Structures are given as structure tokens and as C-alpha cells.
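no rush on this but wanted to send it before i forget. what follows is a protein written twice so to speak, once as letters and once as C-alpha cells for the fold. mainly i need to know what kind of three dimensional shape the backbone takes. thanks a lot i owe you, the record is right below.
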Amino acid sequence: MKKLIDLYPNCGYKDVLVKDIKINSKEVEEGDLFVCIKGVTVDRHDYIKDAIKNGAVVLITDRDILEDIPYIKVANTNLELPKLARKFYGYPDKSLELIGVTGTNGKTTVASIIQDLMGNDICGYLGTSGIICHNFNEYIRNTTPDTDILYKYFQKFVISGCKYVSMEASSEAFYFHRLDNIKFKVGIITNITEDHLNTHKTLKNYISCKEMLVKKVKDNGYSILNVDDIHYEEVVKYAKGTILTYGKNNATLEIVKCKYYSDKTIIKLKYHNKLYKVISPLLGEFNVYNLCAVILALLALNYNIDYIIKRIPLINRPLGRVEFLKFSEDYQIVLDYAHTPDAFSNLYKLLKNLKPKRIITVTGSAGGREIEKRGPMGKIILENSDHVIFTTDDPRFESVENIIKDLVSKSNKSNYEIIIDRKMAINKALSIAKKGDIILIAGKGRDNYMAIKDKYIPYNDYEVISEYFEKDKVNN
């Protein structure tokens, strides 16, 4: 609870108390302050009456209003929100060293493994998998939350005794100013391939938002970059602090050699002209790169390289990320979040190294997102699978049938079927699987919802798979 006059000393409202900050009128409760931010398709000024009805006691607007309620008029509500939230929650970021991870792919893996190696008692995690430390594990909807709750989470980490936060920093978070006023001790860019053009419109704009992370690195901080990424030269010129690189040539941490197995990867790395053998439980070449980013992050935070390498075999693989499920002895089931052409290309490269008899893929593509990637992505899926079942994946306001038409538009292959109901699609794939096959169920990983229109319906791929095998036991 804060006095409004403490937040805005010249506002003139001496007796107004603010319980919390909200930007969604549906979530407003008695005593809250409602900030009328603007999104791509939504202007929260249109929901002022709803916010007041639900108990808002003060508004932050960019215009004069007629409603009889205290309000503060500012030039830009989106820019005002991070400043306000930071002040309201007591500048918690000042008590934390923030490790930011961005990239088209690999954010969750890198951010969560950094926490895993550092320990969740001193390092919190914030991203796709939730808000996590030793005291709590909570679900969040956005990869990088809106600012009204981002600083609330930072405050929770401080109260729990965390000194660091390893967080995913999405391009959309920079676009919508959620990370304004934040400085990072470590900024990591894993890779950049085309994505989220529904928001950014052009690849140039998308890259510019990714670059914001390394621009926000402290002068005494570290920018960690992948030298093998095609956009490295564009990004490195904006990097602040000390620049550390990883990759196969001329890098701070050099990938010398890798051997890939179904349960581990053996890697030879070179650091300061010395060779190191690393045994990693993470699978695939893309995870070698992810792991190198993690190692450099810990080195930047003064961890000893021998200590880091000793702990790597104990890493917990992130759930839903190339997750091999132990339900069948005859065939393998892989759960993954892959939703871009690059992610699928890397994934199939790994799976083919395991020499399966067949690869059966169940996937779709999210609605309300970049349409242009669907055709190339569908082509990669069809050309690398023996059989594909296209299905629903967070369609939002789009027709699933039209999304699937986009997915098959760039290929003349016919090795697919369409089953709109995702549960039925997964069950079909499991029912036709034979000894030696790999079933790839991609797109949603361990998500616990399906986004249909403006609703988030409870749904989970893992639960569907588990239920299938439970019924199979009963029937046998």
C-alpha cells in the first residue's frame, strides 16, 4: 500500500491510497491504480469504466477524462508504467544482478540452466517456465511479464534472498517498453532468425529489439554473443560492457569437437588456450551452443571453469525442451516447443542422428503470429518426417484449417493428415507408432493452456500422453 502523493508528489491527492498497479481492467480490485497503456490492438483507455467498476481509485492516462475519479495525465502511458512500477515496488532491481537472455531459440534453456548451476536459493528464474526460486514456483503467461507485475516479481525474489535473476527477455518486451529502466549485469543473445514479424513487421525491427538487451548491459557487465550467428556482426557493434563470444572459430569459448548420443553429448571446448572435456545431458548441436552461453555467463560472474564443468552432468533438462518421455519401451516420444523453421531444422538433425525407423510429427502453428514462417516451417516438417499429423496449436482468432493450409503451401509432399483436435492427433500418432519410431510432438512443450480466441483453455500435451498410456494399461 502506497500513498499516491508519494508516487506523484505534485499530484495534489493527499488521501488517495494505492493497493496495487494493474493494466488489465478485468484484474482490477478495490484500491488499485489502473494504467491505460496501449498495445498493438488494444487501448486500455477504452476500459476505464470497467476498471472503475471493479474498484480502481486512480487512473494514469495520456488524455483528459470525464469520469469523476482522480487521474494523472502523462505524455505516454507505456513509458510511464515501468517508471511507476519500479518506484511502487521499491526499486527491487537495485538489489539484484540481472542476467538477461534473448534470441529466437534457446532462451528458456539458457536462462533455466544458469539458475540450475548457480542454485535456486541465490538465483531466481523468470520466463516461459514461470517465476521460480527455492521459495516458490508460479506460472506466468508471458515470457517476459508486463511491467505492472515484473517489478512485483523482482520484489518477491529480493524478499526470498535471491541476489541474481536469470530471465528471458523477449523482443516483444523491448518493443512494449517492459524493460525500460532496467540494466543487466549479463546480456546473452543466443541467435536471431526470423520470428514475431506480426509485431515487428520487418526483420530489421526484430533485430533492433534483440539488440536492446546488449545496449542495456552495465558498463561493468558482460555481453555474451554467438559468433556463428548470421546476425553477429550487426549485433556486436551495439554490445556494452566486456564482450564474450562462443562458437566454432575465433571465440572466447571455442567449440572444438562434439559427439552426440541419445542420452548425452560429449564436447571438447577451448578456453584461454586450454582444452576441456564436457559431458552434457543436453542433446543436439543447438544445445552445445546454449551450454556455451551458460558457461560464459557463469565465468562472467566469477565462477571457476572447473567447478562449472564438474556440475554440468548434474543439469536438469528443462521440461518440454527436447524432452524424451519414458512411456514406451518400443518407441521414443519427444516433447518440444519448436515453433520456428530454425528450431525444427535443428531438432530433426538431432533426431536423425538417432537413426529411427520413422519420424512421426504432430504439430501445428500458432494463430495471430507471423504467417510468413508457416510455409517454410511446414516444408521442413514434411521433408524430415515420414508422417505428419497437423493439428491445433493456440489458434486464437484464426481458423485452424487456414493455418494448416499455410503450413502445407510450400511443399508438394502428401505424407500428412489433418486432425484438428490436438488430443485426438496425439492419440493417433501413439496408436500407429511401431518399434524403433520417434514420435515428435512439437509446438507447445509443457504449456498448460490452449489459446482459443481470447480464452486460455486448460490443456497439456504431457497429460494427454500420460492419459493415453494409463488407458492402455487398463485395456491390457
In short: Residues 285-300 form the longest helix (16 residues). The chain has a mean pLDDT of 93. The first strand starts at residue 2 and ends at 3. The chain has three domains: 2-84, 92-314, 323-475.
